[in-house]
Amino acid sequence: MPGWIRRHLVVLAGLCTLAYLVLPNVVVLVFSFNQPNGRFNYTWQRFSLDAWKDPCGVPDLCGALGLSLQLAAWATLGATVLGTLIAFALVRYRFRARGAVNALIFLPMSMPEVVMAASLLTLFLNMGAELGFRTVLVAHVMFCLSFVVVAVKARVMSMDPRLEEAARDLYAGPVQTFLRVTLPIAAPGIAAGALLAFALSFDDFVITNFNAGSTVTFPMYVWGSAQRGTPVQINVVGTAMFAVAVLAVVAARFLTARRKRTRSRR
Amino acid sequence: MTTATDTPPGAAAPAAPAVTRRPRRGRLVPYWLLLPGVLWLLVFFALPLVYQASTSVQTGSLEEGFEVTWHFPTYWEALRDYHPQFARSLLYAGTATLLCLLLGYPLAYLIAFRAGRWRHVLLVLVIAPFFTSFLIRTLAWKTILADGGTVVGALDALHVLDVTSRLGWTEGDRVLATPLAVVCGLTYNFLPFMILPLYTSLERIDGRLHEAARDLYASPATTFRKVTFPLSMPGVVAGTLLTFIPASGDYVNAELLGSTDTKMIGNVIQGQFLRVLDYPTAAALSFLLMAAILILVTVYIRRAGTEELV
């Protein structure tokens, strides 16, 4: 083995893993410009922009996409509100059931999704609930909740409680203290939790698959298309989601860098 | 941090009624904060598990209805009928976890120690694929591993497929619909869950420890074996758990990339619940999966000697 390779073995191995991670995304990007012959978009035929020009060109796809966005928005709202309250209670107060609550938060994250999905289905079947948007929403709030708690907890824990004491010393009421001191400081944690909840809910397949009845979310649509034939538009949506995520990260970094610069100028 | 902050520091020697009134109001606040979220988890997480337990000891049919008859043999019958799928799930998940560790460690190490100003770019590249729906990415593996495709052709030319076929991981000149494809998909899908905890624990290591090891004439390999790796153990343990648990219950990879011979226990549970509609067997299977994972995880944590983690 030449010395150069030996010295950079870790870097080379790491970059190989990175390639493994990104390879499917590259394939999704490339095949979004494909014009397949049959129903299946698995072999490269020829370059075409058709799918990008008309993302809603296949029936039901954009309906499923809209439903998933709506579902993710409501699930995020629910999980973020409930999770933030729990996180504040866990960090700021000592109370008797603390250990039990911590376990209740931890368990949903450490259980195979299929078990949770199946047990929810038995609940809904026993209650005679009609499977659909509402049952899926309830389930999504449930499994996103824990992740919000963890994200918000991390932020609130690193927060200096003396800031709130100072606000109170300056005669701010509890509501004022919360709205003008606590909430702004905790906001990045809450935002991170909300973003995570949105991504998890939007992409969830297993729990939705069990509890959706005949409701078709975007992941359910993709799952069905694997049997019926995958339209190129699915790759367009996948590529667009990847692009939005990368752009959001770049924008966030740009904003924080600028804010840091203006702050240091002061 | 505590309720002590409820009384302003300036209020020294307050009147007796004030002392008893204020903390009492404060004492209820955490419960009010917890109530909605905890209620949600109790009703839609804990209660369903109770219902599933009761379903697993029911007998009956969909037409006549199910009834709790404390029919425990369901568990035994489920295990008897589906133990191959159980064993396969644990084998595939275990292999995928090991591969994740082998593949993920160099990348986590690279990001933590060698990336410099590229660190954030690499981290984004680890997380960003998440945002393309995981089903779409798994379907992309169908394209990558397609029969007669570039990857399969290259593996064939390198005579890798001869070896894997003999081991039973692939069949002839095919990769798709074989165990190798399923394990490849599992490894791919759960790799970020390994990399992120590894990165977090590696990043926390004090660089001066590496310098000290070098000063004491340790070779890079010895430094890694005696300093870096032991200190990254919390990340290794967290990463393996975060990979193994979801991988052992997964059915998407086996369904999209595998065949009927590569069915995992998740596929069986899904089929029993959504197609066969044999709810008691399905519930028993999902409890057995939970029990198997619980036992393995407990043993593993004992062995790894990091009980304080959980």
UniProtKB/TrEMBL annotation, chain A:
It is found in: Cell membrane. InterPro entries: Bact_Polyamine_Transport, MetI-like, MetI-like_sf. The keyword Transmembrane helix applies. It comes from the Bacteria. Residues 65-255 form the ABC transmembrane type-1 domain. It holds the Pfam family BPD_transp_1. PROSITE patterns: ABC_TM1. Its main location: membrane. It is a multi-pass membrane protein. The chain crosses the membrane at residues 9-33, 71-91, 103-125, 131-152, 178-200, 232-256. The keyword Transport applies. Keywords: Cell membrane, Membrane, Transmembrane, Transmembrane helix, Transport. Belongs to the binding-protein-dependent transport system permease family. CysTW subfamily. This is ABC transporter permease.
From TrEMBL, chain B:
Residues 86-300 form the ABC transmembrane type-1 domain. It is a multi-pass membrane protein. The lineage of its organism: Bacteria, Bacillati, Actinomycetota, Actinomycetes, Kitasatosporales. It comes from the Bacteria. It is found in: Cell membrane. Keywords: Cell membrane, Membrane, Transmembrane, Transmembrane helix, Transport. Belongs to the binding-protein-dependent transport system permease family. CysTW subfamily. PROSITE patterns: ABC_TM1. GO terms for cellular component: plasma membrane. This is ABC transporter permease. The chain crosses the membrane at residues 31-51, 90-113, 120-140, 176-199, 227-247, 282-301. GO terms for biological process: transmembrane transport. It comes from Streptomyces fradiae ATCC 10745 = DSM 40063. The gene is potB_2. It holds the Pfam family BPD_transp_1.
